[in-house]
């Protein structure tokens, strides 16, 4: 491979302590013509303060409508090796666990057919292979799928579900986030690979309300582990935290949002009935506090970034759902939600936007869920609201 | 050489095949964990088994060279087991304590940066930017690099009142969790789209282009078989450009970034929160965006100084009040800060109690 292009601006981003993406691109560019043109085009972007990529075109592998994002340089004459520079999304392992062998296998395929540049991971959680040509897509897919790996979602499809590290390495997980993620990914392969929805649909599963996967902000369906029962207290462990410098009164009792705790210097008490299960005390005193009783998940719907109606957080639809394999209730609920969306959703309308447009009642009745005060922060303020004809019974006492 | 036989709809490999034996044995049976160092934690199982995780920084964009090196290190000290965090750090999973120090030594020697665990600045969640996106109004990786260069010691060592989650989005599509981060950068436009009418009539679906506008600024232009934009209604969000490329919204002279703050996703203590606008605009100044770094530093320093233990940025701001936030950070408060979009009236101050 010939010399690297001159990149005085990008070279400034090889300085400083944080690992440099420019160094990464240069490593790939030393042996790969695509990466070299990526580097050169990026330098031009830094000089001109603008990107030089065109909108994605329809490009993919046979039989799938998702998994590949078409990307073309808008300056193909100057940077011919990135004239086609498509992204391939590889469905990651639940919990983002890998082995050295798997990583090397991916690298071997990618060095042969692509730019040698990757993202671990993309925002949705796919292992992203950054930049290849249209004719290499089928061979890449064949190499991966013959080894047991598949493409992730893109476009108006179910997107690659992702989750926190869960019970694999966390004492706070109330549900098996990895198994739920694997199970829904397998269940909905068709919905993942063949876009048939009004818009994207994301699942993210968090083991507890700490929500390390940001499910409540970034998933159309947020599955958050929780429990119904008491918090078991190991009083000796409470003392251990105090001895190690924790101010129990200030840091734990004083920070409890429901004021359901007390500490008299000897015994920590929790009024479990008033606990809203926010996870603060448990996260700060993990040796001392353990939730007990029934485990399950709260199912929330609707979070998304600002377009079109402003950013939304997911809101509670099912306050508590048992989460045991094969997760039939979750899957049936999901199919019902998709049926509603298919029936009423407009093009590029996310499920949350649809529910806001048509009203919660319309949605709840369709999916067969009763209203519950846990679904709202507060009841409505204004005194005008809908009644349905069947609710108005003549001569009724109500 | 012919490619091997393709298979479809097989889904990803099963996660169990990627878990170290100690995790398989103690799956769902972890008792507690301790943060031993900013980049090292140990999880202890009810059975007494332990697993050590060593976290290192990653630029997210990784070459196969670096990935191979990471794989080699994991093979040498971790039985070949590693994972990535939801914030794109790399975690080496050590099952045998005697490998812990040699691993740390090798990581140090090779220049990997350990840290990010506990009440610190972790890696920045970010988007593709000029590296690979058509819609980027700024670069994401460059902003991440200059910010983390500045705050590196908060990753490797120094503690803050609580963790601080940073994010960068290169346009208002926000492929990262910018809208619920402690401090985040989002790239924005400030000029109405420039319409290529001939191309619009060939390439775009008029109704979906109109529907893409959150402010109702777009209407049909039947004479040109195109659309027109009511300039005083356009907020330059760029959603029309996403559905209709000939509505060019990029303008290097006027594009730049806004800074938002006070968001969080966890439910601990207080409910998840949206990030709110704190700096409406800073011009793109690559390669190192010094004005952006300086503004973020002001917010982080004020938080470090003023927040109580365990308070996230948003919780600190809510306690002291936004008027005090602007005072202690020295950031100017402008017309742009007052909402005039969908939830404006929810944000107006409807109390006479506030601070000077």
Please explain how this structure is put together.
The complex is a heterodimer of chains A (398) and B (356). Chain A contains 14 helices and 16 strands. Chain A is an alpha+beta fold and 398 residues long. In chain A, helix 2 packs across helix 3 and helix 4 (100-113) packs antiparallel against helix 5 (137-146). Chain A is globular, with a radius of gyration of 25 Å. The termini of chain A are far apart. The mean pLDDT of chain A is 96. Chain B is α+β, with helices and mostly antiparallel strands and 356 residues long. Chain B is 28% helix and 20% strand. In chain B, the strands form 4 sheets. A 5-stranded antiparallel β-sheet of chain B has the order 1-2-3-6-5. Chain B has a 5-stranded mixed β-sheet with strand order 7-8-9-14-15, covered by helices on one side. In chain B, strands 10-13 form a two-stranded antiparallel sheet. The mean pLDDT of chain B is 96. Chains A and B meet through helix 2, helix 3, strand 1, strand 5 and helix 4 of A and strand 1, strand 4, helix 2, strand 5 and helix 4 of B. Strand 5 of chain A pairs antiparallel with strand 5 of chain B, so a sheet runs across the interface.
Q: How many H/I helical runs of chain B? A: 12
- The end-to-end distance of chain B, rounded to whole angstroms, is 75 Å
| SSE ordering of chain B | HEEEEHEEHEHHEEEHHEEHEEEHHHH
Unreliable stretches of chain A (pLDDT < 50, length at least 5) are none
Largest interface: A-B, 125 and 115 residues
Question: Quaternary state, please?
Answer: heterodimer
Helical content of chain B stands at: 25-40%
The shape of chain B, in one word, is globular
Number of strands of chain A: 16
Main β-sheet description of chain B: 5 strands, antiparallel
What is the strand content of chain A? 15-25%
Mean pLDDT figure of chain B: 96
Number of DSSP E strands of chain B = 15
Mean pLDDT figure of chain A: 96
Gross morphology of chain A is: globular
Give the spatial strand order of the biggest sheet of chain B.
1-2-3-6-5
Amount of helix of chain A: 25-40%
Percent of residues of chain B in beta strands? 15-25%
If strands are numbered along the chain, what order do they take across the biggest sheet of chain A? 8-9-10-15-16
């Amino acid at each position: 491979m010939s010399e690297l292009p001159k990149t005085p601006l990008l070279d400034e981003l090889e300085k400083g302590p944080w690992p440099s993406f420019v160094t990464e691109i240069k490593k790939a560019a030393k042996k790969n013509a695509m990466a070299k043109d990526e580097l050169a085009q990026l330098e031009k972007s830094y000089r001109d303060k603008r990107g030089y990529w065109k909108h994605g075109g329809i490009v993919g592998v046979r039989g799938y409508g998702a998994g590949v994002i078409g990307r073309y340089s808008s300056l193909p004459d100057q940077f011919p090796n990135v004239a086609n520079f498509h992204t391939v999304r590889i469905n990651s392992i639940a919990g983002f666990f890998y082995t050295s062998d798997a990583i090397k296998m991916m690298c071997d395929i990618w060095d042969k057919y692509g730019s040698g540049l990757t993202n671990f991971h993309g925002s949705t959680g796919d292992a992203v292979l950054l930049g290849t040509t249209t004719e290499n897509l089928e061979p890449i897919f064949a190499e991966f799928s013959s080894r047991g790996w598949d493409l992730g979602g893109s476009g108006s499809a179910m997107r690659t579900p992702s989750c926190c590290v869960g019970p694999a390495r966390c004492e706070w997980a109330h549900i098996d986030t990895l198994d739920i993620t694997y199970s829904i990914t397998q269940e909905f392969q068709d919905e993942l690979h063949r876009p048939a929805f009004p818009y994207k649909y994301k699942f993210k599963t968090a083991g507890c309300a700490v929500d390390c996967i940001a499910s409540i902000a970034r998933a159309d369906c947020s599955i958050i582990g929780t429990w119904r029962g008491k918090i078991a207290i190991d009083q000796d462990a409470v003392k251990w935290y105090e001895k190690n410098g924790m101010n129990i009164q200030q840091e734990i009792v004083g920070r409890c949002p429901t004021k359901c705790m007390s500490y008299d210097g000897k015994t920590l008490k929790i009024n479990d009935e008033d606990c809203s299960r926010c996870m603060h005390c448990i996260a700060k005193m993990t040796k001392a506090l353990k939730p007990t009783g029934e485990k399950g998940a709260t199912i929330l719907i609707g979070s998304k970034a600002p377009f079109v109606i402003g950013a939304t957080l997911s809101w509670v639809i099912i306050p508590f759902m048992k989460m045991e394999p094969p997760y039939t209730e979750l899957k049936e609920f999901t199919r019902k939600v998709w049926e509603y969306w298919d029936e009423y959703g407009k093009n590029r309308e996310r499920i949350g936007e649809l529910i806001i447009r048509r009203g919660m009642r319309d949605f709840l009745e369709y999916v067969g869920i009763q209203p519950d005060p846990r679904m709202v922060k507060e009841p409505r303020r204004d005194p005008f609201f809908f009644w349905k004809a069947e609710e108005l019974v003549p001569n009724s006492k109500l | 050489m012919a490619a091997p036989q393709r298979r479809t709809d097989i889904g990803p490999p099963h996660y169990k095949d990627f878990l170290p034996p100690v995790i398989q044995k103690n799956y769902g049976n972890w008792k507690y964990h301790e943060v031993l160092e900013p980049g090292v934690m140990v999880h202890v199982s009810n059975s007494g088994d332990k697993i050590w995780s060593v976290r290192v920084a990653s630029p997210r964009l990784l070459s196969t060279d670096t990935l191979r090196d990471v794989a080699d290190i994991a093979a040498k000290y971790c039985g070949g087991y590693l994972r990535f965090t939801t914030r794109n750090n790399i975690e080496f999973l050590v099952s045998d304590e005697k490998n812990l120090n040699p691993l740390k030594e090798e990581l140090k020697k090779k220049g990997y940066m350990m840290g990010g665990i506990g009440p610190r600045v972790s890696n920045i969640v970010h988007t593709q930017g000029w590296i690979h996106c058509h819609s980027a109004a700024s670069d994401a990786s460059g902003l991440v690099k200059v910010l983390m260069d500045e705050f590196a010691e908060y990753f490797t060592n120094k503690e803050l009142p609580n963790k601080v989650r940073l994010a960068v989005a290169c346009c208002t599509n926000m492929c990262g969790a910018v809208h619920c981060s402690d401090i985040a950068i989002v790239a924005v436009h400030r000029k109405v789209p420039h319409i290529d009418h001939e191309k619009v009539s060939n390439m775009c679906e008029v109704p979906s282009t109109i529907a893409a506008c959150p402010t109702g600024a777009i209407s049909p232009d039947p004479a040109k078989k195109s659309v027109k934009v009511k300039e005083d209604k356009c907020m330059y969000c760029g959603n029309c450009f996403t559905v209709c490329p000939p509505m060019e919204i990029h303008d290097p002279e006027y594009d730049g970034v806004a800074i938002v703050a006070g968001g969080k996703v966890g439910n601990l203590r207080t409910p998840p929160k949206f990030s709110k606008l704190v700096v409406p605009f800073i011009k793109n100044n690559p390669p190192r965006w010094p004005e952006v770094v300086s503004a973020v530093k002001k917010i982080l320093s004020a938080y470090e100084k003023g927040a109580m233990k365990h308070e996230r940025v948003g919780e600190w701001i809510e306690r002291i009040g936004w008027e005090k936030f602007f005072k202690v950070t020295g950031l100017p408060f402008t017309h742009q800060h007052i909402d005039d979009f969908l939830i404006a009236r929810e944000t107006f101050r409807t109390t006479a109690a506030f601070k000077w």
